[in-house]
Amino acid sequence: MPTTTWNRHHVLSLADFTAAEYNTVLQTAASFQEVLSRRTKKVPTLQGQVVANLFFESSTRTRSSFELAAKRLSADTLNFAAASSSMTKGETILDTAKTYLAMGTDIMVVRHREAGVPNAIAAEMDRLGVKVSVLNAGDGQHEHPSQALLDLFTITTLIDPASPRLELLKGKKIAIVGDILHSRVARSNIWSLIASGAEVHLAAPPTLLPKLFAEYICEESEVRSQELFSDSPTPQLFLHWQLEPALENADFVMTLRLQKERMTAHLLPSLREYHQLFGITSTKVQLCKPNVKVLHPGPVNRGVEISSELMDDPEFSLIQSQVTSGVAVRMALLYLLGSGKA
Ligand code: NCD
């Protein structure tokens, strides 16, 4: 493992992540990627520790890859699914967390449909003075740090497989397209990509651009970079109500699922029109750099935010390698949080 300082006790958001922390995660994940390429893919690092996956909201890849990551590190895993738990009998979230604490859980991986639940559990653990770490696996429309970190790992390892690091994205043009309003993935990615010095272009219909960002749009040109992040030396966030300017010469395109389950109003005329205007297709990626790569956190609405053909095209699509990277990145996070507890 790379020698490093890691003082973080919980991973709840990327808003205050430092460049050194990003690089620690990337380098640690690269070491675990190597472990995962061996015949014996398991290391004894977290032997005896308990990782509890507390998923109060549905998940396929995030839950499974956290579970596999924990198992590859030899931790014992507990899986909780709200629908089949005592929450149906009225138990509260904090009481559920305390139940897992009483069983000796060391790391809680928490997903919830409401923003702030992982923070609330972390605050309760800190209040109780226990050493339990909390990892946010997606909270409402707030953040999804491990997804953004695995996206970062996927694209930086593509550029330099031997040494993925934040600086590799400096000056790269990255488009984030789709349902930004409801996307915790976009929010976490914006933090990491801004920190890398990449040029980040958000493209969505006005109804799907969050108010926080919409107020910065320049009426005349519909595009304007803004000092959203006051401590960032060169703010490089651009907003577009059309797809084309975001795609032009882009190095990477991150597509986002239309989160129909979170839509409380009619934000789109029709899925067909959305696909026509903002769906990423083989034709539209021709606007990008010739070697552009397309990402999607999954699950995908095929033929809506991305065409089926492009999604399955190995020349452009990084979707499967994002899933593969997810295990190494989550091993890195569990290792960094868990190794101090032994
Ligand atoms: C994302 C999520 O749940 O936030 N998916 C994921 O974790 N792989 C994105 C989504 O649901 O669209």
TrEMBL record:
<dbReference type="Pfam" id="PF00185">
    <property type="entry name" value="OTCace"/>
</dbReference>
<dbReference type="InterPro" id="IPR006131">
    <property type="entry name" value="Asp_carbamoyltransf_Asp/Orn-bd"/>
</dbReference>
<feature type="binding site">
    <location>
        <position position="298"/>
    </location>
    <ligand>
        <name>carbamoyl phosphate</name>
    </ligand>
</feature>
<comment type="function">
    <text>Catalyzes the condensation of carbamoyl phosphate and aspartate to form carbamoyl aspartate and inorganic phosphate, the committed step in the de novo pyrimidine nucleotide biosynthesis pathway.</text>
</comment>
<feature type="binding site">
    <location>
        <position position="299"/>
    </location>
    <ligand>
        <name>carbamoyl phosphate</name>
    </ligand>
</feature>
<comment type="pathway">
    <text>Pyrimidine metabolism; UMP biosynthesis via de novo pathway; (S)-dihydroorotate from bicarbonate: step 2/3.</text>
</comment>
<dbReference type="InterPro" id="IPR006130">
    <property type="entry name" value="Asp/Orn_carbamoylTrfase"/>
</dbReference>
<feature type="binding site">
    <location>
        <position position="184"/>
    </location>
    <ligand>
        <name>L-aspartate</name>
    </ligand>
</feature>
<feature type="binding site">
    <location>
        <position position="257"/>
    </location>
    <ligand>
        <name>L-aspartate</name>
    </ligand>
</feature>
<keyword id="KW-0665">Pyrimidine biosynthesis</keyword>
<dbReference type="InterPro" id="IPR002082">
    <property type="entry name" value="Asp_carbamoyltransf"/>
</dbReference>
<protein>
    <recommendedName>
        <fullName>Aspartate carbamoyltransferase</fullName>
        <ecNumber>2.1.3.2</ecNumber>
    </recommendedName>
</protein>
<comment type="subunit">
    <text>Heterododecamer (2C3:3R2) of six catalytic PyrB chains organized as two trimers (C3), and six regulatory PyrI chains organized as three dimers (R2).</text>
</comment>
<dbReference type="InterPro" id="IPR006132">
    <property type="entry name" value="Asp/Orn_carbamoyltranf_P-bd"/>
</dbReference>
<comment type="similarity">
    <text>Belongs to the aspartate/ornithine carbamoyltransferase superfamily. ATCase family.</text>
</comment>
<feature type="binding site">
    <location>
        <position position="144"/>
    </location>
    <ligand>
        <name>carbamoyl phosphate</name>
    </ligand>
</feature>
<feature type="binding site">
    <location>
        <position position="111"/>
    </location>
    <ligand>
        <name>carbamoyl phosphate</name>
    </ligand>
</feature>
<feature type="binding site">
    <location>
        <position position="147"/>
    </location>
    <ligand>
        <name>carbamoyl phosphate</name>
    </ligand>
</feature>
<feature type="binding site">
    <location>
        <position position="89"/>
    </location>
    <ligand>
        <name>L-aspartate</name>
    </ligand>
</feature>
<feature type="binding site">
    <location>
        <position position="62"/>
    </location>
    <ligand>
        <name>carbamoyl phosphate</name>
    </ligand>
</feature>
<dbReference type="GO" id="GO:0004070">
    <property type="term" value="F:aspartate carbamoyltransferase activity"/>
</dbReference>
<feature type="binding site">
    <location>
        <position position="61"/>
    </location>
    <ligand>
        <name>carbamoyl phosphate</name>
    </ligand>
</feature>
<keyword id="KW-0808">Transferase</keyword>
<feature type="domain" description="Aspartate/ornithine carbamoyltransferase carbamoyl-P binding">
    <location>
        <begin position="10"/>
        <end position="156"/>
    </location>
</feature>
<dbReference type="InterPro" id="IPR036901">
    <property type="entry name" value="Asp/Orn_carbamoylTrfase_sf"/>
</dbReference>
<feature type="domain" description="Aspartate/ornithine carbamoyltransferase Asp/Orn-binding">
    <location>
        <begin position="170"/>
        <end position="337"/>
    </location>
</feature>
<dbReference type="Pfam" id="PF02729">
    <property type="entry name" value="OTCace_N"/>
</dbReference>
